[in-house]
Amino acid sequence: MKFRFPSPDHRLLDAHCHGVLSQDLADAEFESLTAERRLPPGPGWSPMDSPVGLAIRRWCAPVLDLPTHAPAKEYLQRRRELGFAETNRRLIGAASLQAMLVDTGFGDDLATPHELAALAGAPAYEVLRLETVAESLRDEVTATEFPERFEAALDAAGPDVVAFKSVLAYRFGFDIAGEPPTRDVVVGAVREWQRVETRLTDPVILRFIIWTALSRKPFRGKRRPVQLHTGFGDTDLDLHRANPILLTGLIRSAQQVDGAPIVLLHCYPYHREAAYLAAVYPGVHVDIGLAVGHLGASAGNLMREVMELAPFGKLHYSSDAYGLAEFFLVGAMGFRLGLDAILDDWVGGGAVAAGDARAIAERVLSGNSRALYPLRDIEFGADQSPS
Ligand SMILES: [Zn+2]
């Protein structure tokens, strides 16, 4: 009997995303936002001529009333005809989300969590970016005050903040010491930072802010998880220093002190390392957002490799959508279909019973994130449960 999991109807919990741009975009602006890089594409090549470009034409074109696979030029023209407000509303709505966790620490002119919630018809929570908090304190406090003021800033996070996030991978890399730095060393590093440039790249302070986040008290009965960008990103990143396996020392130390959960975001091409870390360390979770959108038709391969080893209770969905509403939909569809294909094979091959496969899918699509993040319970009544 062929297994059919009804995943296209299943509402997803998007555990890491950003705002979308609330303005109409020129073709070049749109195209540059489809690629994870900061350099121009080069002559004769469009970023839409890529796996993610095909995924946009496949999944988003019909939502804008075009045939599936409509050419990129027609797609962009239709997008302009509809205008950004209608385009964003249709595409984010079509992603069929249960809730969103929005990283508000990067980018200008993006829709706020409140505006995203209205577009999605689902609650939006906030992810607080640690480096942004530290940078906002840099010129406000003395070096001696900095450690306590940073702790106080995290403790003052509002009720919508359900996770912290670090971009250590961008600012230094994961080849750092595993233990928390001493207070004196942190104060010395802050003093030096205040003498030079504003951007936070000092490995001692970066370690300090992660350890501070890992050691906060529970909120709504849970520790706020610390999300870490790992694996691929734009050209501001040295990819070989963003392999989460380099964080083994920090992860091991965090387990010993019962720190908050760590969520490894994105992970590609180190998703197998991330799955291994989630398998062996109780406090580590894996979230392959961003990669599922960018890999387009190959998203299923990525998920198959993650699911070789990652425990089913520690795998999460996110889109890492940024700027373009298209990423909410291509991420959601890539993830749903990839999961569906794997479970279909497993049930067909006798590896898992259909009922167990449905239970795994429910957890991976939304249940694991509802269990992990301190969301408000009230918003997940019977009408929002997955079908
Ligand atoms: Zn992100």
Protein traits:
387 residues, alpha/beta, TIM Barrel, eight-stranded parallel β-sheet, disordered C terminus, binds zinc ion
What is the H/E order?
EHHHHEHEHHEHHHEHEHEHHEHH
- Assign an overall shape: globular
Mean pLDDT: 92
CATH superfamily: Metal-dependent hydrolases
Total domain count: 1
Main sheet attributes: strand count, strand direction, barrel closure: 8 strands, parallel
> What low-confidence regions span 5 or more consecutive residues with pLDDT below 50?
381-387
- Name the CATH class: Alpha Beta
Rg over alpha carbons: 21 Å
Percent of residues in β-strands: 5-15%
Which cofactors or ions or other ligands sit in this model? zinc ion
Number of helices: 16
Percent range for helical residues? 40-55%
How many beta-strand elements? Answer: 8
Cα-to-Cα separation, first versus last residue: 21 Å
CATH architectural name: Alpha-Beta Barrel
What would the CATH topology be?
Answer: TIM Barrel
Strand line-up in the sheet with most strands = 1-2-3-4-5-6-7-8
Please state the structural category: alpha/beta
Can you offer a commentary on this structure?
By secondary structure, the protein is α/β, with parallel strands linked by helices. It has a single domain, classed as TIM Barrel. The chain is 43% helix and 11% strand. It has 16 helices and eight strands. It has helices spanning 27-33, 51-59, 72-82, 84-94, 113-120, 130-137, 146-155, 168-171, 183-195, 203-214, 248-256, 271-280, 291-294, 299-306, 326-348, 354-372; strands spanning 12-17, 97-103, 124-129, 161-166, 226-230, 262-266, 284-287, 315-316. Strands 1-2-3-4-5-6-7-8 form an eight-stranded parallel β-sheet. Strand 5, helix 11 and strand 6 form a beta-alpha-beta unit. Helix 2 packs across helix 15, helix 7 runs parallel beside helix 10 (203-214) and helix 15 packs antiparallel against helix 16. The longest helix has 23 residues, at 326-348. It is globular. Residues 16, 18, 103, 320 line the site of zinc ion (ZN). Zinc ion binds next to loops.
